[in-house]
């Protein structure tokens, strides 16, 4: 039997018109208004694309640098060897090491949000695929997490760089800030995400690429965003 929505959720649902497609800034103002939990909720976006990721030329996996940050403390781990381990430490990585770190992760140690590996360590990291893959933590060149240039990589992920991918149904789920952000800052992050999704359109995507975009606070109702209005938005003009 389906669980009835709570009184709090029923009240929030009344604020959102299911039949309305909202202008981007209006949607984000509404997201903030419906973030009434007792903690700082995460702002989420769910983008349905006209792709079928079972085909390699219709897969989307890339990174975005959110100009206003994520609002979260990002814990970075680095697998490297020799001098590169010291470089990872100096760059601000919380966890760093070589074979011993691979061993710790294989035993279930997951005290990090991003895992970066140098290219020479990837043959050894490959055996962690079964552990890291389901959590979306496996380092990849496309995601910017396989690199020998550790300092800028570590600092970029700490400053608001996110890796994301379309799931098997062609939907992209991304957190793009906190409900405590201003609506304008959330809009800057959402715009950066939209431009990244457009810029990385898979070669095999045919027909209408963007289907729907919904935003919500992590404990709030879904709010549909006008895709064309978001794409047409020029934040430099609005500044």
UniProtKB/TrEMBL annotation:
GO cellular component, one term: large ribosomal subunit
Keywords attached to this entry: Repressor, Ribonucleoprotein, Ribosomal protein, RNA-binding, rRNA-binding, Translation regulation, tRNA-binding
PROSITE patterns associated with the record: RIBOSOMAL_L1
Protein's UniProt keywords contain Metal-binding: no
Single Gene Ontology BP annotation: translation
Domain of life where this protein originates: Bacteria
GO molecular function: rRNA binding; structural constituent of ribosome; tRNA binding
Its job: Protein L1 is also a translational repressor protein, it controls the translation of the L11 operon by binding to its mRNA. Binds directly to 23S rRNA. The L1 stalk is quite mobile in the ribosome, and is involved in E site tRNA release.
Complex and partners: Part of the 50S ribosomal subunit.
PANTHER family, alphabetized: 54S RIBOSOMAL PROTEIN L1, MITOCHONDRIAL, LARGE RIBOSOMAL SUBUNIT PROTEIN UL1M
HAMAP family attached to this UniProt entry: Ribosomal_uL1_B
Family affiliation: Belongs to the universal ribosomal protein uL1 family.
Official protein name in the record: Large ribosomal subunit protein uL1
Species of origin: Waterburya agarophytonicola KI4
Organism lineage string: Bacteria, Bacillati, Cyanobacteriota, Cyanophyceae, Pleurocapsales
């Amino acid at each position: 039997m389906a669980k009835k929505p709570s009184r709090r959720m029923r009240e929030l649902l009344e604020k959102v018109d299911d039949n309305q497609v909202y202008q981007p800034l209006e949607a984000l103002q509404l997201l903030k208004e419906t973030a009434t939990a007792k903690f700082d909720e995460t702002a989420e976006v769910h983008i349905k694309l006209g792709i079928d990721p079972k085909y390699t030329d219709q897969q989307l996996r890339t990174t975005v640098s959110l100009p206003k940050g994520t609002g979260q403390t990002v814990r970075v781990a680095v697998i490297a060897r020799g001098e590169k381990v010291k470089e990872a430490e100096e760059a601000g990585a919380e966890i760093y090491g070589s074979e011993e770190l691979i061993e710790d992760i294989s035993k279930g140690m997951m005290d990090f949000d991003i895992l970066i590996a140098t290219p020479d360590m990837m043959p050894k990291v490959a055996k962690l695929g079964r552990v890291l893959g389901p959590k979306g933590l496996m380092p990849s060149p496309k995601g910017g997490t396989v690199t020998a240039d550790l300092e800028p990589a570590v600092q970029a992920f700490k400053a608001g760089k996110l890796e994301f991918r379309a799931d098997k149904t062609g939907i992209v789920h991304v957190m793009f800030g906190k409900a405590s952000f201003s609506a304008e800052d959330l809009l800057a992050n959402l715009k950066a995400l939209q431009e990244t999704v457009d810029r990385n359109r898979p070669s095999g995507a045919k027909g209408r690429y963007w289907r729907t975009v919904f935003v919500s606070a992590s404990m709030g109702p879904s709010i549909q965003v006008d895709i064309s209005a978001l794409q047409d938005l020029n934040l430099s003009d609005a500044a």
